[in-house]
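name: query_chain
kind: protein
chains: 1
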Amino acid sequence: MKKLKNEKELVKKALALGVAYGENRGVVEFEPTDSATDKLEYIYRLLVHDGIIQPLPAEQVSQKAIQHRLAMWAARQ
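structure:
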């Protein structure tokens, strides 16, 4: 997994895009007290379920891998 040049900013962008996507679909309403890691995991699973991104192999699922996958998704948006 090659780290992206501006991965931290892309993760923030992915979080904003993913929250908007989930709320526009009407499947989730995030609370201000929800942690960023919980939001990122939910967004990842929602995007995989909708077929927007490819799922990670089960043995490779980790917070760092989820952040990287979502950063790559945000870079294409």
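note: The first helix runs from residue 7 to 25.
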